[in-house]
Amino acid sequence: MGIEGPFWRAIAVFRVASLAYAALLVLRAGGYARPAVAWAVVGVMAVWTVVMLVPPPSARRGPLLAADLVVTVACLLAAPYAQSRDDMLAGAIPITATWAAGPVLAYGVARGRRAGAVAAAVMSAADLWLRSGNGVDLASIPVNGAVLMFMAGVVVGHVARLAREAEERMRRAARIEAAGRERERLARGIHDSVLQVLALVQRRGAEIGGEAAELGRLAGEQEAALRALVQAPPVAEEPDPAPPPGLHAPVWQRRRLAHTSPGSTGTGAAESDVDLRELLRPYGTSGVTVSAPATPLRLPAGSAREVAAAVGAALDNVARHCPEGTRAWILAEEDDGAVVVTVRDDGPGIPEGRLEQAAREGRMGVARSIRGRVADLGGTVAITSSRTGTEIELTVPVGADKASADEASGRRS
């Protein structure tokens, strides 16, 4: 039913309230001239109100709305059989009273303002014929009710149409956002695996020379083409420096693939918590020191893998952009309901404006593989850089869950 549900519930409340008002009119008038007929009409109105309390499904909506209009017109035209001619001449309200507006509102919600206006015209014509057939002077018939009914049908129909359009826009925006998040996730996985391997093949091929150099050149071309697919606009990649001995890229890459392959990054919603320390320890080498507390750092499995992948991306940047012999330290701890992982190096630091330039060139190491991952978990990233080194601090709530973070992002939008 979607966004129409509240409209149908409001119409149901209106029908019930109008039915109570009609019964009150009959009571105040002492049953009119023919109480049995008057209460019989109220009984039919009550039965039909119960029938229309449940919103009609789309497949049955047309016939049911037509039946609603017919039953309401019939109840309206039954008024002369319960009310005397003197009552009608005195301007007494028909037994149906405001209940007659039910099908007008229903048509407006289901079919739009034009259908609401047509239903209002039918009900107004029936009321006019009823009064004129009982000797009421046409010039003296009040038109306030007809005008209000017409306006109600048009306004409700227009608002319902706007609500449906807004709902469709929201659904479209949610689909686009979900596709964007999935694209970001895939781009991070590609950056952490395929692009890194292609860059490694390019560098090693250039070092070896001969036929390997041609293989490295082709790998470089494919790396640039793949970057163009996951990040626009495409730009040619500049050659990367060889990794320092302490941060050996092939060993590093194998460890990264074990923990951050695209197929292993799930939502974590149905997975148990894991100890983040176990995912960070494999990063320790002669050039990387891993420090963690003696107690476990528990995170949902999917979230822990994302944090470990972000740490690996930070170490990749050290290996690719810092001089040989640069050391790195990983410090993991829990602080005030959050897991904080700090990656620090003693390299030359990040030149001012380099991160913004890298994002424009399609390099995703910081923008997506680090900041994007942590942002999806509801966490924050703080980067501090100087001539004495760079420090990247990742803060993730202990209850971080990628599925719930995506859900919250969808609600904010």
From TrEMBL:
Q: Does the keyword Thylakoid apply?
A: no
**Record keyword Kinase present:** yes
Domain called Histidine kinase/HSP90-like ATPase: residue spans: 302-400
Provide the transmembrane region boundaries. 12-30, 36-55, 62-82, 88-108, 143-163
- What SMART domains does the record point to? HATPase_c
Alphabetized Pfam families for the sequence = DUF5931, HATPase_c
Q: Which UniProt keywords apply?
A: Kinase, Membrane, Transferase, Transmembrane, Transmembrane helix, Two-component regulatory system
Q: Output the NCBIfam families linked to this UniProt entry.
A: HK_morpho_MacS
Q: What is this protein called?
A: DUF5931 domain-containing protein
The protein's organism comes out as Microbispora hainanensis
Q: What is the lineage of its organism?
A: Bacteria, Bacillati, Actinomycetota, Actinomycetes, Streptosporangiales
